[in-house]
Specification:
Length: 273
């Protein structure tokens, strides 16, 4: 009695959708994205509150589109985004918008920090949260789906955001190191674009970072700046509220010290006479 051979199993086939998913690459032009959002939603006029509210609305829209809501109307339920969660580039946008929301809130609080000490405390906390979100974004982008340019840009953004926090708490050495690394990456990225407008956007970020580096060097005794050069930096610090505020404090202290020195010299001179 002959036994028929069992039919061989059909070879496994990969669907086109699976192949497309495997080859999918996530790319985010981060700096042009946030600069455009900032210009269209308040920061052209220094309105940080309006930009913060935009980030909040944007976060809600992205979460709804991904069905990644933080609970229901009956209660909050936190959800952590991990590398395994990221199967769509919009998850990266969530962390980016969280960082931008905290940063803009910190800049909003800074407007009142000089007169209300409690505001300064909250401002530093918000900057710290923004730095944490930026660092989380850098870690999330350390996956194969994210292209090399995006990884590099997210790294520069993370360094810049953390440097802002260190700058505010006057950790000058760490701030200058991070600002320098961030500026170096943005300089490299600027040469990677053929479009002149995009290239200028990255070079503009380089120019924004450079005065912060010089101010950190000044506080570390490395810059060789005097009060007149600080005033020149202050006049060019348009739109850089953190740097402008720090320079204002430094110039005020320098003038106060100079006044006290001259007054003490005058009193000594009168006694001698």
């Amino acid at each position: 009695m002959e036994v028929e051979d069992a039919p061989s199993a059909a070879p496994e086939t990969t669907s086109p959708a699976t192949i497309q998913e495997e080859k999918q690459s996530y790319s985010i032009e981060l700096l042009p994205l946030i600069k455009e959002a900032q210009q269209h939603h308040g920061l052209r006029h220094g309105d940080y509150q309006r930009y913060r509210q935009y980030c909040q609305r944007r976060l809600k829209r992205i979460r709804n589109s991904l069905n990644f809501k933080l609970g229901t109307r009956h209660g909050f339920k936190g959800k952590k985004i991990t590398q395994e969660t990221v199967n769509d580039p919009r998850f990266l946008h969530i962390i980016l918008m969280e960082a931008e929301r905290c940063w803009s809130h910190a800049m909003e609080l800074k407007l009142y920090a000089n007169t209300e000490p409690r505001k300064k405390f909250h401002m530093v906390r918000k900057l710290s949260k923004a730095s944490k979100y930026a660092d989380d974004l850098k870690d999330l982008c350390n996956i194969d789906q994210v292209d090399a340019r995006t990884k590099l840009e997210v790294q520069a953004y993370s360094y810049w955001m953390t440097a802002n926090m260190k700058f505010e708490v006057q950790n000058w050495q760490t701030a200058i190191d991070l600002y320098t690394q961030s500026r170096s990456i943005y300089e490299k990225l600027s040469s990677a674009f053929m479009d002149e407008d995009t290239k200028m956007l990255y070079l503009q970020r380089v120019e924004e970072i450079s005065p912060n580096i010089r101010y950190c060097a000044y506080n570390l005794g490395q810059g060789g700046l005097d009060i007149n050069e600080l005033m020149k930096m202050r006049s060019k610090a348009t739109g850089q509220d953190m740097l402008a505020a720090k320079i204002d404090v430094s110039t005020h202290n320098s003038r106060l010290f100079e006044f006290q020195r001259k007054d003490r010299f005058a009193r000594i001179h009168r006694v001698v006479l």
